[in-house]
Amino acid sequence: MKKAMKLTVSGINLVRWGAIAGLGLFSLACGQAEAPATSNVSANTTQTSVEENVAAESVHPGEQIYQNYCFSCHTPGLSGAPKTGDAEAWAPRIAKGPDLLLSTTIEGIPPAMPPRGMCFDCSDKDLAAAIDYMVQKSQ
């Protein structure tokens, strides 16, 4: 009988390395939305119809940031994050004012909320819009 060879790197099983790497990739992807599907809009679309479609949707300016970065924690209430739509959980935060909400978002709330909610490409204005979106949904 042949002994099964263990594949190791510095004494750690390669299967464990793979699991650790997979978990790391999963955590990096957490909170990242999938790329939107491409649309086959004809070249003859007029400016007026585009403007009408945008006006009809009336999307909050912070909704996309929320969907890409905030959704994964604030929808289920992970690690103490107030659930979007939970007026009772948001009331004391809202009472402290938008400036404090923005500064805690920028700095993060250890150990649960990372600085900038992991949106390092977001401007302060983007973050404020995402906060406003959650506040509006939670009143």
Number of helices: 6
Shape assignment: globular
Helix % is 40-55%
Helix and strand succession?
EEHHHHHH
Q: Which fold name is given in CATH as the topology of the domain at 61-137?
A: Cytochrome Bc1 Complex, Chain D, domain 2
* Mean pLDDT figure: 77
Protein structure class:
mainly alpha
Give the strand tally.
2
CATH homologous superfamily title of the domain at 61-137 = Cytochrome c-like domain
Largest sheet: 2 strands, antiparallel
In angstroms, what is the radius of gyration?
A: 21 Å
Strand order of the largest sheet: 1-2
How big a fraction of the residues is strand?
under 5%
- Which segments are poorly predicted (pLDDT under 50) over 5 or more consecutive residues? 4-15, 17-29, 31-36
In CATH, the architecture of the domain at 61-137 is Orthogonal Bundle
**Straight-line distance between termini:** 69 Å
Q: What is the strand and helix layout of this fold?
A:
Elements: E1 8-9, E2 12-13, H1 14-29, H2 47-57, H3 63-74, H4 87-95, H5 98-107, H6 124-137
What brief labels describe this structure?
139 residues, 6 helices, Cytochrome Bc1 Complex, Chain D, domain 2, two-stranded antiparallel sheet, 52% helix, mainly alpha
What's the short story on this structure?
By secondary structure, the protein is mostly helical. It is 52% helix and 3% strand.
Describe the structure.
- The chain is globular and about 30 Å long.
- It is 52% helix and 3% strand.
- The termini are far apart.
- It has 139 residues and is mainly α.
- The chain has a two-stranded antiparallel sheet.
- It has a domain at 61-137: Cytochrome c-like domain (Cytochrome Bc1 Complex, Chain D, domain 2), CATH 1.10.760.10.
- The protein contains 6 helices and 2 strands; from the N terminus they run E-E-H-H-H-H-H-H.
- Mean pLDDT is 77; it is low at 4-15, 17-29 and 31-36.
- Helix 3 crosses helix 6 and helix 5 (98-107) packs across helix 6.
- It has helices at 14-29, 47-57, 63-74, 87-95, 98-107, 124-137, and strands spanning 8-9, 12-13.
